[in-house]
Amino acid sequence: MDIRRFFNKPRSVSEDPGDGDRACVSEAGCSYAQTSEEIDSAREANVSPAEASRQQRSSQQASEPAGDLGIDQPNQVVKKNYPSRLFSGKKRSFHSAWYTNRDWLEYSVNADAAYCYPCRKFRAPGSSMDSAFTLNGFSDWKHAVEMGKGLNKHAASKEHMLCATMWKDKEMRIATGREVSTLVNAEQLQRNRYYLSSIVDVIEFLAVNHLPFRGDNDSYVSMSDDGCGLFLSMFEYTLRKDPVLATIAQSIPHNARYTSHEIQNELLDIMSTMVTEHIVTEVGESFYTIKVDGTRDPTGRENISIVVRFINESYEPTERLLTIATADQGDAATLTDTIVEELSKAGLSPRRIISQVYDGASLMSGKHGGVQKRLQEKLQRDIPYVHCFNHQLHLVVSHALAAEQAVLDFFSTCNILYKFCRRPTVAILYKGERLKRLLEQRWTGHFGTVSVVLRSFDDLVTLLKEIDSQRTYGADVRVEAAGLLRTMSEPSFRFIAEMVHSILSYLDPPNTMLQSEDMDLLTGMQLVNSACVCVENLRSEIKLVALLERCRSAEPPMEKRRRTINPAFDSYIVEERIAQEDPNDEMELRRLYFSCIDSVCGEIKERFGERNCAVMGALKALDPEDADFLDASKIAPLLKLTNTSVVDTEYAVANQFLRARMDDTSPPDGGRWTMAKVLKYLHQPLEAMPSVITALKHALTFGASTALCENSFSTLKNVFSDHRQSMLHKRKANLIMLAFEKDLTKKFRTEWRDTVLRRFHSVAHRRLPLY
């Protein structure tokens, strides 16, 4: 694409005056500039021209009933039975026989009402036409075909006959090749498409890069002024760099410049819908896993991230953000209904859900009233629930380490140290690595904190000694530095730091790998179990002695005040004294070391060991390295979830074929054979064994983490910034979708551009012909 075309576009869309962008109010900047007729009607109504134009647009938009009505032709739905209503105690309904000699009649299933196609499409703005056939829908079935009433009365009205004449005239012009688009110069149509495509390019660029659209000034004629926002600024830059676009822009009518926030919202909605439709097409008839998580934005609105995991046409696991939904209430029933509604609205069948992955909150995971249970009851079938592995690892670390007070005291000291080094007077002297803030909601914060403290231990000690010895610092700073220096000088501090770092360093790789898109449930379990074995291997005398040797300080710890016997006991015979535990005593450190390892391993086995169920056994039986590889009896519970039959002969043949193939060759990308590689590289011969290939696809569809939902919340934070919080949820959701699924959004630069223009052009009352 020519780079001039990329930068020569107008700006984006806000639903309400949102996105930090205010509504278009100037005459030149509005996408519907006032015509002379609008000005005249405004004078008659004693309102401003802008208000008259706004009322006209509102009337046009309000008069378009939402739903399933026809766009190019009447939608004459034929059903065996239509919904019935009671009229004077008798049930009556719509009849398809009424279409006879009424080619203008159409029926809406959603509204259970009849409409008039030509009156909807060709009525004059502000006309006094009966709204029953254009907006509200006609549903008085009792008097529908009576003489002088209902359908007959409408067909005989002057307004209907005028609209019907205009409709037939348009059809005749289309049939004879004399439609409006052919009467306009073909070159002008191409110029109009070039102009609008530049607007689409700017919207795509700003959305993909999480950038705001609007500024303080929305006027088209003032786009070169300060405060006009990035949308108009980029469009103005494009006009300067692209002489062709600049020439075209001069011929665009003032009432069709398409730079208002309403047009931006419309284009954003079209683009977001196309991305969702592509995702639904990718899923196709495959079974899929849903991953759901929620967060509140700064305005307090709940944002529900719904992610689907499926196997694409290349036989690879894929995860896509389906939508960012919202709900007025936060209970499990409402959230369950919201999930099902959003899936159905997007075009996915909830019946194709094979598993569900959420966090461990009781709202989601409750065995009796949680979302996972309610979803199974609503769909009336078994849908396994997976507690997000990343959340579980956080619970493992936080619960295990919280069992020892010495470890809690260590992290409290690290937190104090972090705040101390952030003081401006202290930060100037500190030469080491920047300390990490302790994140209570993420155990990776503990690991990052310990890692930096160990790497910068000498720099921290030097800093504290320097501050403690200088009178130029205030007493409070010197006292705090002295206390921190004493704590860090104790052998137990360095020992706990080394011990925690050794344990968490084995959990960090699986935590990172679990967040990848291609991580399936079985591989995730194998990673966690491997990490648990590595932590258990730390439980040896040799490793403990090596750790103690590393922690022996070159300088002896500061001497503490010698304990003395209380003089009150001088007149008594003291038989026994209770010794106080010395945190630096080697026996206490030994106990602490083994206790922490046992706690971590115990937590992992307790939280992850419960997955030794039938479905987990089926997943293991699909692992090429498992002794029960392709054992049909063990795989049966997995296929039972989708009512897929197990063909024993297919598994027997596949077992022999795959074992011989894997013994003779290695995967094209190296490494060992896994479920994912078997499906990716050997799917062609397995297509003759549909039961086997279905089982492999089901197994890889099971996810292990809601990390993609968390990633979408990062996009939410960038899009819904402090200066963009006036936008409505629909615009926000569209922007997040386009920004997050940027690989699909970038298709609007090439292959999807013409589709966007055609969908935009198909909306009624367009003032700039494109086709």
Automatic annotation (TrEMBL):
Low complexity: bias regions: 48-66
This protein's name: TTF-type domain-containing protein
A GO molecular-function annotation: protein dimerization activity
Highest taxon listed in the record's lineage: Eukaryota
TTF-type domain span: 90-179
Annotated segments matching region Disordered: 1-21, 37-75
Organism (species): Zoarces viviparus
